[in-house]
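Intended use. Records such as the Nucleoside diphosphate kinase entry shown here are meant for training and evaluating sequence-to-structure methods. They are not intended to support clinical decisions.
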Amino acid sequence: MEKTFLMVKPDGVQRNLIGEIVSRFEKKGFQLAGAKLMTISRELAENHYGEHKERPFFGELVNFITSGPVFAMVWQGDNVIATARNMMGKTNPSEAAAGTVRGDFAVNVSNNIIHGSDSPESAVREIGLFFKEDELVNYEKAI
Ligand code: CMP
């Protein structure tokens, strides 16, 4: 079963959008395999966003993502990585279509509400950074 890492960023948590966002992915038909409300350390933020290290906005990105609690999640289902990216909308909310999370709730590229893994490799890496194996449920065993 394909898995992806999604995270409601500090702006989404502060704006009480956790429930709205979780609801969208539940209604779509994906399963929540793990979730936690947490404040990210600078070390974890720099690791998570390591691919952007040389970008001019890296410092701002790390400051923002560590500025308040985030809601980290693992979702699973068929083609969940690409489908979740479509449901999130384009990175820059001004280009994100209506009906997507960013299209509906954000205006600014820094404060764009949600993060989602962009590839199978990123998903494995990001899930491993944020979750231990025993923090993820196995629905097959629970039935
Ligand atoms: P995210 O999907 O979390 O991955 C990297 C983040 O960098 C991205 O969402 C944006 O929030 C942020 N980002 C991308 N481009 C810019 C930019 N030009 N200025 C500030 N932040 C940016």
